[in-house]
Amino acid sequence: MGALGLTYSKSFLDDLKSRFRLSDVIGRHVKLTRAGREFKGLSPFTNEKTPSFFVNDEKGFYHCFSSGESGDLLSFFMKTQRLSFNESVKLLADEAGVELPRQTEDERQRDRERASLLDVMEMAAQFYRQELARREGAPARTYLAERGLKDDTIQAFGLGYAPRGRTALHDHLLQKDVTPDQIVQAGLAIQPDDDRPLYDRFRHRIIFPIADFKGRVIAFGGRALDSNVSAKYLNSPETPLFHKGAVLYNFKAARESCYRSVEGRDRVLIVAEGYMDVISLVEAGFATAVAPLGTALTDTQLHTLWRVCPEPILCFDGDRAGLSAANRIVDRALPSLKPGHSLRFALLPEGQDPDDIIRAGGAQAMTSFLTDARPLADMLWERELSMAPFDTPERRAGLESRLGDLIRTIRERRVQDHYRADIRARLAALFRRDVAAGQRFFDGRRPWIPGESLADSRGISPQLRRSKLTTTGNRSEEREALLILAILNHPGLLDSHFEGFAEVSLLNAKLDRLRNEILRIASGESLDRAALANHLSGTSVADIARELRGRNSLGKDHPFARPEAPLAEVERGWSHLINLHWDADKLAREQREAEDAFGRDMTDENFARLVASRAQKLAAEQEEKAKVAEADKERTAGHSK
User: Fold this and answer.
1) How many helices (H) and strands (E) does the chain have?
2) By the 8 A CB rule, do 574 and 486 touch?
3) How far is residue 513's CA from residue 543's CA, in Å, rounded to a whole number?
């Protein structure tokens, strides 16, 4: 790394690299396939024909047997992109949205102090482990045995015991040449305000070491053994090493287990509420269990989970307090949802936690609850339904309004669109059922349900029933397919249209998956047609891409999307098409809003608004057809000259 590495602290570089999965980043440049616990591919350093390049996510390390090159994420960019160390750091920081630090001498001194505090924490952890084995640790050993913990588990988690003595740890560390200031800085002792002597923070407690993502002890949790102590569980305070909102208990081991596993439950992170829940889960075979540290999940912890697992399962007691905690996380997670990333919720029987479930019914009982975990969308829907009855128009309007407000908090537009469609379908089914049960009618017409044809509603005139305004012709799927086909044949479009392609709304789920995979592949480099096809051939969307290329009618009707089309024609045609799609998407949203308004209140005003919105959409589609026909005519005339 050289002297340039001193520009940034080791803790900053470690944190930066932890924000990426090594195989994901290298996979943008090298086609990788899974090989057991690792990934393999052709060497980016030699022209080999047999793969000898291996990537290990668990270790954050790659090795090339054909060239002897090896290293981490930063060295990969330095060697393959011919970047300097600082340029590689900046590249990763920009992608992660992290501001580069500018270290002063004071900051460098703090880094040295952090390294020293890590040594102090390791001394304390060793002291607590030794105390557990001594005679005074007998009550702690008895408690752990009653909880069913095996010796191997106790050792694996480094559990210990803090003795009753007021200064037992303090005195031990002083003998190791640790200063009183370091003991306080590490959160191991408390300095009274009246300048009385320091005393140990943890006394007569079972000790749970808390590690960072590299496995280094940075804090402790303590479980009281005296029943009359006010704080049953006590954590270290905030220190230069420990920020409880950024750490998850057992995260390093759980992440490594996810990376080692090929499929199944072992690739899903399980989020419990406390240390003992995590330990019981791991001992029962659920190696990917983690827990926050005495607080609800923070945004930082949520994104940490998503970097490893797209849909973690959160376990909650099914009582009122557990449901309340789950609902707070629903609200916290909604704005940050993104394609493929969400949460699932395992609601346990009232008054029981994972440890209770496992002790009563074994791992199979816990597996059953995890298998039945509910999607976040279901939790949101069920919560809003339970808040109040919806037996009047006003209450139904209130339900719809609350759900709409919540959906609008989702920042990622594609996810927001899919949530809106999902909730609209649920509301339609709910209100249809409610209306049918009550046999309610308005002015001789049954209520219209959003999404159904107006021609099916009662009270609509025969003239309107025959009108095209009561049908919902839709050209969006063809536009979506054409947008992606042009990218497949001309990936160079992404050099100037990457953001537009990423943000455009796609309703077809298969095409949306293909678009996301193209963006993932192209985010790190410029690609030609052959390179993109090669990358896609080894992915789960290969068949979708192959099917799209085989749709001959698309290229026949729209020559700009063909592989042989001139670049200027491709650029002009694709830009025109995406603008049409943006406009059509806007009109579709306006129509949905008009449908919603008419579904809630069948007034003449809302009906006129709905008819106008559909007329506008139909006119836009006819204009689109005319423009395409005119463009084809001009193109044909140009070729004939």
Assistant:
1) 26, 16
2) yes
3) 12
Kindly list the domain boundaries of the chain, sorted by start residue: 3-96, 105-242, 251-383, 476-640
Residue 468 binned pLDDT confidence (cut-offs 50, 70, 90): very low
- Tell me: pLDDT of 67 over 50: yes
Whether residue 33 contacts residue 538, with contact meaning beta carbons closer than 8 Å, is answered with: yes
Can you give the pLDDT at residue 470?
34
The H or E element spanning position 346 is strand 344-348
**Domain 3-96 coded CATH 3.40.47.10:** no
Percent of the chain with pLDDT over 70: 78
Q: Confidence band (pLDDT; 50, 70, 90) for 124?
A: very high
CA 150 to chain CA mean position, Å = 34
Q: How many CA atoms lie within 13 A of 143 on its CB side?
A: 18
CATH architecture of structural domain 105-242: Alpha-Beta Complex (3.90)
| CB proximity list for 45: less than 8 A, separation 6 or greater | 53, 64, 66, 67, 69, 79, 80
**Closest-CA residue to 549 (of 535, 566, 568, 562):** 562
The larger pLDDT score, comparing residue 88 to residue 411, is at: 411
Q: Do 150 and 85 touch, CB atoms closer than 8 A?
A: no
Instruction: Please classify residue 636 by burial: count the beta carbons closer than 10 Å to its beta carbon, then call 0-12 exposed, 13-18 middle and 19+ buried.
Output: exposed
Query: What pLDDT does residue 563 have?
Result: 87
Give whole-number Cα distances, 222 to 28, 117, 226, 237, 240, in Å.
Answer: 44, 19, 12, 12, 20
Read off the pLDDT band of 566 (50, 70, 90).
Answer: confident
Q: What pLDDT, in 10s, does the model give residues 339-394?
A: 889 999 999 988 888 988 998 889 999 999 999 999 999 999 999 998 888 888 88
Distance (Å, whole) CA 21 – CA 309: 11
- Return the CATH fold of 476-640: DNAb Helicase; Chain A (1.10.860)
pLDDT on residue 630: 59
Looking only at the bridges linking them, the beta strands covering 313-317 and 344-348 are parallel
Residue that the structure tokens 């609008």 belong to: 408
Identify each DSSP E strand in 75-224 by its residue range. 160-162, 189-190, 199-200, 205-211, 217-224
Predicted confidence band at 589 (pLDDT cuts at 50, 70, 90)? low
Q: Whole-angstrom Cα distance, residue 22 to residue 31?
A: 13
Q: Identify the CA nearest to 536 among candidates 48, 44, 80, 28.
A: 28
Distance CA 354, CA 282 (A): 11
Give SS3 for 56. Answer: strand
Q: Which residue has the higher pLDDT, 433 or 299?
A: 299
CATH class of the domain comprising 251-383:
alpha beta
For CA atoms 360, 362, 368, 370, the dihedral sign is positive
Strands 233-235 and 199-200: unpaired
Provide the pLDDT for residue 80.
78
What's the pLDDT score for residue 426?
Answer: 85
